[in-house]
Amino acid sequence: MRLYLEIDGVINAVYGPRSWVGHVAEGQSPDVFDSVTFDGYTFVWSRELVRRLVAWAEKDDNEIVWATFWDPQVETLSRMLGFGRVGADARSLDVRGPREGVDGLLGSYVTPFSKMRAILEDVKAFPVKGDNWVALDPALSELMDAEGVEWVANVALTGGDVPPVVSDIGVTPGLMSYIETYGNIDDWIESVTFDMFDSLDGDNEKKWEV
Question: Which of 67, 120, 155, 159 has its CA 20 to 30 A from that of 31?
Fold first, then answer.
């Protein structure tokens, strides 16, 4: 399976700690979040979920591909966020689309359309092992909702899925469980139940209402 990853709104999510701070995996420190300043921006991310993403990517037939605004700097940034060799060695797509700039010169910028086109073209050029791929990106989630049948059909026909992601919260334990158990709905439901309730007490339960 292939996972197309944006960084902002997926790995970097400023309200992640406020949204599911009560979640503590067995044997893990309750301080699961970290932050760093890079290129003038502050990044906030879950060390636990990055660890799970790396473990997932290291399994046979699984692959991370970066589809992010940060593609020129993704090798350095992904190491800073804890992806290590797995992130630095992963492929990175050029997700920028053309636009007409000053005096008719062509520039480039990133839009949900340019990212989705880049992903669909990559799936065609590099067939996915197992025929399944998932894109985690809040902008693509919104695109699927707004544009309707055409994009949904294009994604489905290529074996893809674009699950909902909230940009301020990013990837959550439940969403990570979905990735880890992709294709097995019973395992996913069971793992989400464990993620959401087993390590929470009554005082923290309200923090899951997002």
Answer: 67
